[in-house]
Structures are given as C-alpha cells and as structure tokens.
Amino acid sequence: MGSNQHMSQGTKRITLPVTGMTCASCAAAIEQSLAKLPGLARVSVNVASENVSIEYDPGRIDTRKLVDVIADAGYGVALEKATFRVGGMTCASCVANVEKALGGVPGVISASVNLASEKASVSYLKGEAGMAEFRQAVEEAGYSVLGEQEDDKVDQDVLKVQKARRRFIFAIIPAGVGWTLMILSMFVPIPGYLLIIALLGFPVVFVAGWPTHKASWGAIRRRRANMDVLISLGSVPPYFMGIASLIWPGPSFIEMAMGIVSFHLLGRFLEVRAKGRASQAIKKLLQLGAKTARISMNGAEQEIAIEEVKVGDIMIVRPGEKIPTDGVIVEGESAIDESMATGESMPVNRKEGDKIIGATINQQGLLKVKATSIGKDTFLSQVIRMVEECQGSKVPVQEFADRVTSYMVPAVLGISLLTGISWLVFPDFFMRIITWGASFLPWINPELGTVTLAIFASIAVLVISCPCALGLGTPTALMVGTGMGAERGVLFRRGDAIQTMSEVRTIVFDKTGTITKGRPGVTDIVVNGKFGNKDILRLAAGLEQGSEHPVGQALVLEARAQGIQLTDVDGFEAITGKGIRGRVNDREVLVGNQKLMEDSQVDFHPIRDRLTELEDEAKTAMLVAVDGQLAGIIAVADTLKEDSVQAIAELKKMGLETAMISGDNQRTAAAIAAKVGITRVLADVLPQDKAAEIRRLQDEVGLVAMVGDGINDAPALTQADVGIAIGTGTDIAIESSDITLVSGELSAVITAVNLSRATFRKIKQNYFFAWVYNALAIPMAVVGLLHPMVGMAAMTVSSLNVVTNSLRLKKARVEPSWLRS
User: Fold this and answer.
1) Are the CB atoms for 649 and 627 separated by under 8 Å?
2) Phi and psi angles of residue 310, each rounded to the nearest 5 degrees, phi first
C-alpha cells in the first residue's frame, strides 16, 4: 500500500492547543504520556504551533481524559470559554439539568451554571464545540439561550508575545544595571559590589526566570530532561555560588547567571514573535468567517449572530457582503469572489441551484441562499481543521531528529559533568588551548583559576547546546508551507505528503474531470453548401431542446453562449440508436449518425473523410440534415481544461513523468493524451481496477502521485504514494486524499509540487544549520573557548535562525511560471 493514510474505522482525530512546551523534549514527554492510553491510534506533537494531534477511539477514551493526561505530564491545554444567559431555570434541579446537558456535548471539558445570574460558563475545545452545539443542548433539555456574553477576544499569539516581552524587559533592566556596575568595578572600586549584584540578580534569576525553573522542576520530578533544565542548571547554581562568595572569597558568577536568564528570555521573546508570524495563515482563515447573517423569517429580514444560523435558513446576501455560511442559491444570480477558497482572483458566476462557500464575497446581485452547512461542518472549518492537522503531523525525516533530540539533553548533562572533571584532571591541556584562544577571543581570561574556568566551561556546555533548533526545524517550515498552500487553494492533509510529494517523479492523471472538464462541449462545426455555422447550430440546438441527452444539451448551451435565440420544436421524435428528428422554423431537421442519414436517403459522402477525422480525434460527430439536404457536422467532446496543456508541459520541464489513466478505449484515450502532451497512457481501465494499475506502475517507476476527482477513484488515490483530489469548492471529497486542490485547475498541481519541494528544502536546511551549530559549538564550549554568556547568545541566534529561515519560505515562487507577475 502507499503512504496515503486515513483515519481507521471508528477513530476520531482531534487537535489540542498545549501550553507550557518549550522544546522537543517537552513534545517527547507528552507523546510518551499519551501513548500509554488504550484506544490511541496515533499522536503527534508540533512544538512550533504548540498543538498535539491525536487519533483515538472515542468509545474507549474521551477528550477529558486526554486533557487530564496532558496535565499530569506537567502541561496544560488552552481551552475556549463561552458565557451565555439561560432562560427557563427555576431551581437547583434546573441548574443540574443544564450542566448535565452542556457537559454531554462532545468537546466540552467543564460547564457550570449560576441560578442567580442565569448564566452558564463553558470551557471547551476550539473546533470541537461552539455556541450552535450549546444552544441545541440547552434547548433539548427544555430551556433557552438568551444571548452570548460578548467578551473582547484577544489573539492568543499576541498575548504570548506581550507576556514574553514583559518577562524580558523585567529581566534586562536590573541585568543591564548589574553589567554596567561590573564594567565600572574594573576601573573603580564599588563598595558593597557583591551585595548589590546579588540583589539585582535575584529578580532576574528567580522572578523573571521562575516559569523556566518551574518547568524544569516539573521535568526533573518526572525524570525527564528538557531545555528548561539546562537553563536552570546554568543560572541557579552560579547565583548561589556568587552568594557564597559574600562569605568565602571567590569569583562572582551572578553576572553570568543574569546574562544566561536574560539571553534566554530574549530568545523566547524573539522566537514567540517569529512563530506567531509563521502561523498567520490560520489566523487569516479564522478571520474570514462572517460574524452575522441576515435571514428571512416570516417575510421579514432579521440580523442574527452566525452561531444562530440553522440548516435550512434562507439567508439574504446583498452585493459586497460575505456569504455567511455554506449554502445553495435559491434566488438570484451574481459573481462570487471565491479567492479565499481557490486562490483564483477572478470572480465566478453563480446562479440559482449552484452551491456556494461560506465567507466568499457576493460582488453583484442580491442573493437568497439556503444554508446547508453550519459550524464545524462548513467548508472553511474543514479547511482550518485540515491545515491544523497537517501542522500537527510529522514528516518521516523528523522521526529520526526527534529520537536524537530525546537523548540530547541527558547527553549534554553528561558532557557538562565530564567537562568539569576533565578540566580538573587535565588542567595543563586545557590551559594551552585557552592561552592560544585568548590572543583573538576577548572573553577568555587565562589568569582565572582552574576551578573557575572548569565551572565556566561546564556551564557553557549546558547553555550552548540547542535542542530547540532541532525541534523547530520541521514544525516551523510545515506551518509556513501549509499556510501558503491554504492561501492558494492547495490543502495538505498530512506532513509526510509534503516530503513524499517532493520526491515523486511520476504523476498519474485521471482523464475525466481532471485533464478534461468532465462535461461535453461543442468543439467543431463543419458546414456544407449554403449553410453557415450559426444556421446549423440554431436548427440543431433548436431540435435538441427536446432531448435530455448530455450531447444534445451541449449544443443547446453552445447556442445560448453565442446569443442564438431558439424556437419551439414540432413533431419531435427520438430514433433509438440513430438520432432525432423534428420541425424547427417549419424546416425538417435531422441530427444523428450515419445510419440515420442512410435511412433518410441523405447523401453525406462529400464530408465522409472529415467525419472520420473527427471520430479519430475521440469526438462525437453528429451529422445535421435540413429538408433532406446535408447541412454539415457538429462535433462534441469532453473538452480539455484551459490550462491542461500548459500544466503538463511545465510538469515535464520540472523533471516529472506524466501518465493518464482512463476507462476509454486505447484510440480515444491516446487522442486526448496526445493533445496535452502525455505519452504514457493507461487505457481500458475500469474504476475498480485503477488501484491495481497504480500498484503495477509503482513497481515499475517507484513513487507515484495520482490526481483524480476523489469520488470514483478513491481506491487509486489511496494506493498512490500521494493522492491528490481535484475539484471545485464544496464538491471536493476533502477527506479522500493527502492533498486537495480546491480550484479544480491542473495548474494547482504545479503549485503543490513546487510548494512541497520548497518546504522540504527548508526542512533539510533547518536540520543542517542545527546539526552544524551543535557539532561546532559544544566542542568549543568543552575546551573553554566560549564564555557561557556568549554561548547563550549563540544558542538564541541558532533557534531564531531556524524560525526565520522557515519564514523566508514565504518568498518562494510556487505558482506556475505563466501566473507569476
């Protein structure tokens, strides 16, 4: 089987926002804790987005248990809170009934109701529940929701940045004063210097650094080591050693402790700010949704909150307004800006009976839209959930990095201890190295005692190692890459699809609905004698008005597109296996095959050769006769999508082999393939045999991607190493693939390939930078060439470099060449 993995029968996937994570070791701790639960199919933690993606059996575990296990591991889950008034309560039993009803809503962690204020407060998981579900639960219990309390909702990323900035500023002010005094003390004696430094250092190390020390103590208590442990060991012991120097003569390490905590907090602040920029795509998607809807009730318009919209409500949408939620047009016609879903800037014309996507913009006419999906079932909610799940997944290359990172912190602790011992056992060896280094590194002072230098080297090893850079290498690139994809209508379901897609060298396209439009259209009109193109089309389309055959409807649509007025038909007759006949504008018209013409004694031999040519091109050629005379030929075929030829040509330039799979016979399939430039054709393949054909191709060429509509070729998409579903808007089977292309254009395949390659290239670069940094920095720290404060600054730069390198992915040109400005 291929790598296309989907949820097992009976399992559910959920993404939880986790608080308190600082590095890859934290991610490993959470994964190990959750992995012990029965009924858990898969767990993946993303340090950059601070999310954990879990696939589990809801019959054996509930969401409360998942939240409790994460809490027991020393971390938290960020919950959404909703407060609203409940009507109809009269006693304590009512309170219990409402609490029980709300507590039974999937995704609700806790619910409390106050009888006096008639208010309910609910803590719940974002995306799993919302006001629509709370309202339904309360009403089913026999009560009513009187209105939601409007709280000022603040962006959580903004709060994180503000908190990190406050901690850094709180630390840097006393630390800056301390460093200034340290420099002055080199030239002028300062009375009570050590006491002043100790007082300045306390708020830096123990107040600003308290969250770090708290997290490190929690990790130690659970017999795990993470980045926080390294920072605590690099700052707390030196502070107390400095305090000891107040009693016993010796060097002060408090300045160093302040520097380590301050640089650590600076790094956290810059990292949080950069990670916030990396996750902007999700924020943009969340902001797209409409806040209110105008619905028609008893003939009158009423504006209500979007959470109050129910399936079946008729929404009124004026020009310039957002479509509140997914629906179908019941009245009106307009151009709809669907760029938020498809990435296409040109508006799309939609009319009565067409499905439209919530959060798209009505540009012209007044529309009445019947709501078909609400809340978490809407297209926009599915897209957000899909992007979050992909960001929470892992690429194969990350598995190895995570295994190494899980051993890295304990290894660094061991190296630090061995460094101190080695310095004390072999002082002459290390002194020769730092004496050499002192000639060009200003922070080295060989005149310090061996014990002091041993402490400096041990602490430098602790604070310079950077598991954070390793832990952030994949998640930050995934966040940026999947966000860019969502903005362009390319949705990745799993992270491993990005790595696999970047390595694929063969792409197989389903023919109908993928390379072609999936519906017949008029391709050629051949005239004979005195008739013109429009004359033939007017008469043939006029006759076909009485036919329900797709080929006949193609003629009618073409005539209307050319502005041809069609008249009524008299004496319409369908002749089985041959064609149709009838009177149009008092003229006897025949439309059909050669057999119909022969039976009606119409001579079609003058254009027989042209008829054969059209049939060889896999077109349905219909002969048209008027009043017993041959008027011409109208050819109909499933037409190519506008960008199919360009897209296939560009994929070839990118080094990819293209193939086409079709149920058509070899001649018809080869004709279509030749038009778009595909040389490998898999013809006469029934839908149920497509998966076997893909498997055979995998055995021959290796990794294979399959592009289809996701409806009648789902097994083939699953068999392929990467399954790509292509469609339009809400018609896409969004669950049936690794990658979903919303726009339905083949050019989106190029975007998906370019984006996968660019994202995976960033992931490899990030790992290279992180490994090289650690490989160079730790040995330099061991031999005493790096002061702990310099090491801390270098570690900060290393983590930040990985995040900013991922952000540079935004500049990548992933669109097809002909669409680049």
Assistant:
1) no
2) -115, 155
Q: With contact defined as beta carbons under 8 Å apart, do 392 and 44 qualify? A: yes
DSSP three-state, residue 451: helix
Burial 677-697 (b: 16+ CB within 10 A, else e): ebeebbbebeeeebbebbbeb
Residues paired with 302 in a beta bridge = 295
User: Sign of torsion, CA 59 62 66 68?
Assistant: negative
CA–CA distance, 509 with 645 (Å, rounded to integer): 13
Q: pLDDT band at residue 281, thresholds of 50, 70 and 90?
A: low
| CB distance 204 to 174 below 8 Å | yes
Residue 286 is which amino acid? Answer: L
User: Among 738, 344, 283, 732, which Cα is nearest to 479's?
Assistant: 283
pTM of the model: 0.73
Q: Which sequence positions are flagged as catalytic?
A: 510
Three-state DSSP class for 566? coil
Tell me the mean pLDDT in the region 435-440. Answer: 90
Model confidence at 821, pLDDT cuts 50, 70, 90, reads low
Read off the amino acid at residue 402. D
Q: What is d(CA 159, CA 19) in angstroms, rounded to the nearest whole number?
A: 13
Q: Read off the pLDDT band of 712 (50, 70, 90).
A: low
User: To 10 degrees, what angle do helices 788-807 and 254-278 make?
Assistant: 0
Inter-CA distances, 388 with 16, 482, 610, 638, 812, Å: 10, 9, 55, 37, 22
Alpha helices in 129-279 (DSSP H): 131-140, 156-185, 193-202, 210-221, 227-244, 254-278
Measuring CA to CA, how many Å separate 28 from each of 21, 44, 766?
Answer: 10, 9, 20
Q: DSSP readout, 746-760?
A: THHHHHHHHHHHHHH
Element (H, E) at 631: strand 629-640
One-letter amino acid of 820: R
User: Angle formed by the axes of helices 788-807 and 467-487, to 10°?
Assistant: 20
CB 19 within 8 A of CB 49: no
Q: State which H helix or E strand residue 715 sits in.
A: helix 714-719
CB 315 within 8 A of CB 325: yes
Q: Which is it for strands 657-661 and 506-510: parallel, antiparallel or unpaired?
A: parallel
| Maximum C-alpha span of the chain | 122
CA 293 and chain centroid, separation: 27
By CB atoms closer than 10 A (0-12, 13-18, 19+), residue 563 is: exposed
Q: Which residues contact 344 (CB under 8 A, 6 or more apart)?
A: 338, 489, 743, 745
DSSP designation for 207: I
Please report, as a single letter, which amino acid is at residue 6: H
Interval 780-817: pLDDT, tens? 999 999 888 787 788 778 878 888 898 899 888 888 88
Phi then psi for residue 302, to 5 deg, are: -140, 130
Q: Is 620 exposed, middle or buried (0-12, 13-18, 19+ CB in 10 A)?
A: middle
The CA–CA distances, whole Å, from 719 to 505, 627, 688, 738 equal 16, 56, 12, 11
Block residue for tokens 């002749």? 575
**Hey, what are 703's tokens?**
């990794």
Q: Is 355 helix (H, G, I), strand (E, B) or coil?
A: strand
- DSSP code per residue over 501-519: HHH--EEEEEIIIIIEEEE
Number of residues in the chain = 821
In which band, very low, low, confident or very high, does the pLDDT at 147 lie, cut at 50, 70 and 90? low
- What residue has token string 């809503």? 105
3-state secondary structure 506-570: EEEEEHHHHHEEEEEEEEEEEECCCCCHHHHHHHHHHHHCCCCCHHHHHHHHHHHHCCCCCCCEE
Reduced to 3 states (helix: H, G, I; strand: E, B; else coil), residue 285 is helix
Instruction: Return the HEC string of 375-388.
Output: HHHCHHHHHHHHHH
CA 288 to CA 578: how far, in whole Å?
53
What residue has token string 């005239």? 527
